[in-house]
Predict the structure.
Amino acid sequence: MRRDAASVPGPPGPAPYPFVLGGARAWSHDDGLPAGWLHTFDALALGPGAPPRKVHVFLPRDYAVTGPGYPVLYFHDGHTTFWPGGLGHKSWNVAGVLDELWRARAIPELLVVAVEPLDRVLEYTHADWGAARRFGGVEDYARYLAHELVPFVDACYRTRRGRDHRVVVGSSHGGLAAFYVANRCPDVFGAAGCLSSSFWVGLDAIHGGRCPGGPLASSALVRGLEATLRDRARRPRLWLDWGLVRDGRRHNDVTEAAAAARGAEMVALLRDRYGYGPDELHAYEDLLGEHDEVSWGRRLPAVLSALVGTPQEG
């Protein structure tokens, strides 16, 4: 494979600079991350009537424009993927995780597409989950990812095509969205990393409002995705996890506790009702896991090792 990053549109430079790729304006910026550099589309507008959104694309240092191409990870909550952000001003530190994994040759080199939400509580949920909170936009969001963003990325970057080379990853509401997107669009995404997922949405009133409770088996989430869950040939491979830290803070004692209870219930449901085996479903309880980006980033090496695989030789 030819290793010539200088021939890539928007190669790394001593200072950020603008360029155009696929008809869209972007910035190339090298933040000094050992594993690679980034293209940031500040207002990427795709599809008729779609509002512009910020999208970051992370490229390995030796990104090559020839060769078989790269698998692609699609991350929700793109504002915390590489840099501190969100309510806790924390980061997954994905670039640092990738640097360690690539140095160890634990996973192949890949691209990361970090998608910033426009309204995460709307875009990442499928059902009413609390008093005066927006909901129900995940169907449109799934359509945007699968039918607008993925084709754009495949057209502009050296990617491996096909579901087996695309993974969608998220946490909390983003973990719920990852589960939904991969099962709603299984011909586009072959795997999903669902960390501390909000499977309680529409069931448990942990943030106020009125929710009916009841089992996941009869929930709107499972009923809406059941055709895919039963389809052994098309359903995505899954990573589901949750943390066990309970320290008196609401995020851990309430939100993560609900994620843990419903996560364990989802694992049992997938295994017992739908026959998921160990090659399809990876489940993990993190004894030190909190409901934050630091915990999710610490678990990310295991997630990627399970869902992406090892480098091909040659």
Q: What stands out?
A: The chain has one domain: 5-307. Residues 5-307 form a domain with the Rossmann fold fold (CATH 3.40.50.1820). The helical segments are 94-103, 120-123, 138-156, 173-184, 220-230, 250-272, 293-307.
